[in-house]
TrEMBL record:
The keyword Membrane applies. This is Permease. The lineage of its organism: Bacteria, Bacillati, Bacillota, Bacilli, Bacillales. It comes from the Bacteria. The keyword Membrane applies. Keywords: Membrane, Transmembrane, Transmembrane helix. The chain crosses the membrane at residues 7-27, 33-55, 76-94, 100-117.
Amino acid sequence: MILRKFLGFVFTTLLTGLFLTVFFAIMNDFDNLFAALGILLAGTAPFMFLIGLPVSIFSDYLTKNLNSKQRFKKAFMIYMIFGLIIGLVLSFFFEHLLLLVITLVASFIYWIVDEILRKKFTAY
């Protein structure tokens, strides 16, 4: 489980950083995408580690006794609820609702990556 959670953290950080880079490149016409990717990866990694990883572990703990379809739906709700809460808190402090959208997208990416890794690790 520890390896799966670590891989989920790494893949989600990379995918979220890539998503944010493409999003901001489209919105602001970045010239240097590689530098923007590095900055956004450095910015997303601490949030994924300090918020996303504990939520992922908490979700596994809460849904461990459910069948696959129930667990799938409940895990999605847990990720989205925590993404909403964190997004609202960040939006309150930084006064920008775009942070809410970003945290919800990051939560969705983390959920998808975790579900894919769960299927890959239970297949062996």
